[in-house]
Specification:
Herpes Virus-1, two-stranded antiparallel sheet, two-stranded antiparallel ribbon, about 20% helix, disordered N terminus, disordered C terminus, zinc ion binding
């Protein structure tokens, strides 16, 4: 017996988004962009394309990545998180501002400026606490410390020890304030050199000793991060992509998961209550004191 209600053909049902046949499922939306951080497809509206390299990630992952890079990067340029990115694009300030809260953006700009002054041999901070102006340093041909005048508070200080400069002043440092940065050719170390326990920071030249543990080194003087074996710059490599390929492949000393896990454990604690944190090593489970500026165990037995 014919029913009085109108019937819809399959084509009509497909064209009407509010009508589905019995037992039929609503078709999935079309494919979106694939995020290499969360390893899932996201709708185009939830993704962002980096202007420096055209790589696409979901906005949520980029926000977390940028905020982690601000906290852990020490003011270094924030690069594309894709380890296979051929351009290794650097995020613009406008992109960082749209992916992080305002207070974190201000923190990043301040730390980036301080890092630039610290790494620039022609600049120095005025040692007077009430002043803290940036002074110009004219390096001598011998590279030895000399008098630096502050144009703001008119203090004259030593470029080496930052102490007051007086007639007959003898700097206790008695060494060049900034040693020349090794060239690319000089960074090519032999196998015997890579095992040396003491090396110079490739940025500021200060001597650093390593007995064992992680190969990612953090200079306490200039906050420069580099690879112990090849002295490669790792300032923007918070995911430690350097140890995925090349001569330093698998030479990190710890798994990437252990490093990120230890960072997560320390980041979960309030800053004011973590001058010393004890963390269990990912490999040997030995509890080790972890300082605020070194976020992973350095005396693992492996």
């Amino acid at each position: 017996m014919a029913s009085g209600s109108p019937t819809l053909s399959r084509e009509d049902a497909a064209s009407d988004p509010g009508t589905l046949e019995a037992g039929a499922q609503r078709p999935e939306p079309g494919p979106g962009a694939y995020c290499k951080l969360c390893l899932s497809e996201q709708p185009p509206a939830a993704t962002r394309e980096l202007q420096g390299c055209d790589c696409v990630f979901c906005t949520t992952c980029l926000e977390r990545y940028v905020q982690l890079a601000i906290v852990e990067g020490g003011g270094a340029p924030i690069t594309c998180p894709d380890m296979a990115c051929l351009k290794t694009g650097v995020l613009l300030d406008s992109e960082i501002a749209s992916l992080a809260p305002e207070d974190q953006v201000e923190l990043y700009q301040r730390v980036k400026f301080e890092r630039g002054v610290k790494l620039d041999s022609s600049k120095a901070w005025c040692p007077v606490l009430e002043c803290q102006a940036v002074c110009s340093v004219h390096l001598s041909t011998e590279g030895r410390p000399h008098a630096v005048p502050c144009l703001t508070c008119h203090t004259v200080f030593c470029s080496g020890c930052r102490g007051p400069w007086q007639a007959g002043h003898v700097c206790p440092e008695r060494q060049p304030m900034m040693l020349p940065v090794p060239s690319r050719e000089s960074r090519a170390r032999s196998s015997s050199d890579s095992d040396m326990p003491i090396k110079q920071c490739p940025m500021c030249g200060i001597y650093i000793e390593r007995n064992q543990g992680c190969a990612q080194m953090l200079c306490k003087s200039c906050k420069h991060t580099f690879c112990w074996y090849c002295l490669q710059n790792l300032d923007g490599d918070i995911f430690l992509r350097h140890y995925d390929k090349g001569p330093c492949r698998n030479k990190l000393g710890h798994s990437r998961a252990s490093v990120m896990w230890n960072r997560t454990q320390v980041r979960s604690l309030p800053i004011r209550t973590r001058p010393t944190v004890f963390i269990s090593c990912w490999h040997c489970l030995k509890r080790t004191a972890c300082t605020a500026n070194h976020l992973w165990v350095v005396n693992c037995c492996v």
